[in-house]
Amino acid sequence: MEPRRRIIFVAPVLFLLSCFYSNLGNAIDTITSSRPIRDHETIISNGSAFKLGFFRPGNSSNRYVGIWYNKESEPVVWVANRNKPLNDASGVVTISDHGNLVVLNGQNEVLWSTNVSNSMTNASAQLLDSGNLVLRNNTNGISIWESFQEPTDTILSGMKVSSNKKTDQKVSLTSWKNPSDPSPGSFSHGIKSSDIPEACIWNESRVYWRPGLWNSQTFIGANGRYSFYNDGFQITVDDQEDAVFFTYTFPNLSMFFVLSSQGILEERDWDEGKKNWKVRYQTLQTECDVYGWCGAFGSCNPQKNPICRCLRGFQPKNIEEWNRGNWTSGCVRKRLLQCERRNLTGEKDRFLKLAKMKLPDFVERSSVPVEICREQCLNNCSCIAYAYDASIGCMTWTESLTDIQKFSSGAVDLYIRLAHSELAKKDNKVLIIIPIVVGIITFAICAFFLHSNRCDNVFTVQAWKLWNENNILALIDPVISNPCFQPEILRCIQVGLLCVQEFVKDRPTMPTVVSMLNSEIVDLPTPKQPAFTESQNALDAKSFVQSKQKCSVNYVTLSVIGGR
Ligand SMILES: *[C@@H]1O[C@H](CO)[C@@H](O)[C@H](O)[C@H]1NC(C)=O
Ligand SMILES: *[C@@H]1O[C@H](CO)[C@@H](O)[C@H](O)[C@H]1NC(C)=O
Ligand SMILES: *[C@@H]1O[C@H](CO)[C@@H](O)[C@H](O)[C@H]1NC(C)=O
Ligand SMILES: *[C@@H]1O[C@H](CO)[C@@H](O)[C@H](O)[C@H]1NC(C)=O
Ligand SMILES: *[C@@H]1O[C@H](CO)[C@@H](O)[C@H](O)[C@H]1NC(C)=O
Ligand SMILES: *[C@@H]1O[C@H](CO)[C@@H](O)[C@H](O)[C@H]1NC(C)=O
Ligand SMILES: *[C@@H]1O[C@H](CO)[C@@H](O)[C@H](O)[C@H]1NC(C)=O
Ligand SMILES: *[C@@H]1O[C@H](CO)[C@@H](O)[C@H](O)[C@H]1NC(C)=O
Ligand SMILES: *[C@@H]1O[C@H](CO)[C@@H](O)[C@H](O)[C@H]1NC(C)=O
Ligand SMILES: *[C@@H]1O[C@H](CO)[C@@H](O)[C@H](O)[C@H]1NC(C)=O
């Protein structure tokens, strides 16, 4: 940034000015109509923490009036004329005849104004050591405008972000367009709703990041053990004004947070040893932190590969997209809920506990105790999940479950409603292990055949034969062919046979195999003839016709049908 280079040149000037003004009994932290500042001049706050002047950002040749830290490295924390830059060094910051603080160009045109006064005869603007620029009516000393009320992209200690429903006024941060252009970019940070105070980062009008609900200590969906919401952060709800204020009070002046032009909110503090700013916390640590990365009913876990999985009982809405790593379409329920079938004779739905989750968006809240929370949710078919936090109370969801993430620590348990049959499926612990074993066998089969050109493999011939005879279980070692596991084993073999189909284009890809094995994809296609033949050519035409018929006729479902 340019101001850095300028300081060396400006400092002696300021020193002289300082002597001059202090002789007159005035501090050099103040702008008046008789003491404007021009390009290459600056004012410095009383304790020397901040500086105000003209600067040129990044590679731009445009000039702006801003406030920056008075340190070796000088992040700009506020910009006045972000929408109307100067293109030369003829700018002036002064107090207008009406008593406004204004930025003028060489032709005396107003590029920016505080725009609050129309009659003040004696006003001045002072840069405080908090970084706040304050316009005062000198006659009575009352502040009539503050830069803290009109933040750019940075929050300094003592600043407020607010939302007032009555006056429809919001104070929020807006990112720079890019590091060379402070004009408003596409990201903003502010208060989402004042009914249940929630913070948010938006990309234009779409939510880009959300930290979840406030539990009177922290936002429960802000990832990581540390978050800037721990540093003197406070929420004030003014019921009379129908307003909410987020106040930030950092332990010292050398901390701030900024909304970057990439939409990441970063907390930085000053490293005196390195003479630089280091990032203490940032909102986007993995892709999972991007709002709705895995779509509806998808759950994100940055420690897994792929990071998106459908919640148990759900499958990808669009399998092709999902397998390509485009998860935005999310997942859909595999089976209707019991309550949706309007069958009251059957088993009730049940809740599956998902431990330590970032809770989904679109929550409804009530203050009933946990047992009643659960009961009310169970008895209302439109309630698809609930969670409970001692401070927040009972939380329920109705439409969809969006923006869910698995956290490694902290966070809250989420209970999702599933058809009884879906839950019964894996209640038995052994069931978790067996599919893995059989899965490995299946993979071995796949690997073996994919990397082998042998066309006379006895095992495949046998498997294919038994499959066609509907007797595939004869292939399985009696030890693992416990009837409970048969559906899983059948699924594995079917996937194995799909992997060794004659035509490569018919074979599933590895991500698809994974989805098939963990039952994200419920309906498996019927395997076609595998790549073994006595007489390749003779069979080609036949198997083509055969497989076409099979595939178009029906899909075999091998998932477990519940009620055990
Ligand atoms: C500037 O700071 C000094 C001490 O740090 C204080 O005595 C003085 O009143 C301050 N001046 C103004 C104008 O705030
Ligand atoms: C300035 O331009 C150079 C070269 O084009 C580029 O590498 C650098 O990132 C730019 N800096 C900013 C702040 O845009
Ligand atoms: C000042 O306020 C008026 C009316 O509220 C608005 O039309 C005008 O654009 C504002 N001017 C500046 C420089 O912000
Ligand atoms: C400034 O203060 C004087 C004295 O209290 C008052 O008469 C005048 O109306 C004030 N001006 C503005 C614009 O607030
Ligand atoms: C403006 O206010 C200051 C402080 O009250 C006072 O010293 C000064 O004389 C006033 N100037 C004018 C022109 O009224
Ligand atoms: C923000 O939104 C714009 C326009 O809708 C889009 O082109 C861009 O990719 C989004 N940025 C991010 C980081 O998602
Ligand atoms: C400011 O406070 C933070 C948190 O207590 C601390 O980590 C940091 O070193 C402090 N910075 C300075 C310059 O004192
Ligand atoms: C992802 O899928 C959505 C929904 O079908 C589509 O609108 C979007 O363009 C896809 N994104 C990419 C990168 O393919
Ligand atoms: C209701 O559910 C039970 C148990 O799941 C089942 O046996 C019965 O056939 C179902 N009745 C209807 C009408 O679907
Ligand atoms: C079920 O929940 C929905 C959504 O919360 C609510 O509108 C509806 O009144 C509830 N129905 C009953 C019978 O409680």
End-to-end gap: 69 Å
Q: The CATH topology of the largest domain, please?
A: Agglutinin, subunit A
CATH domain class of the largest domain: Mainly Beta
Low-confidence stretches: 1-27, 427-436, 452-456, 533-564
Strand content: 25-35%
Q: Supply the helix-strand structural class.
A: alpha+beta
> What is the strand arrangement across the widest sheet?
26-25-33-29-34-31-32-30
Number of helices, where a helix is a run of at least 4 consecutive DSSP H or I residues: 9
Write down the overall geometry. Answer: elongated
Task: Report the count of strand segments.
Answer: 36
- What is the residue-averaged pLDDT? 80
Query: What is the number of domains?
Result: 4
Bound molecules: 2-acetamido-2-deoxy-beta-D-glucopyranose
CATH architecture assignment name of the largest domain: Orthogonal Prism
Radius of gyration: 32 Å
Instruction: Please give the largest β-sheet.
Output: 8 strands, mixed
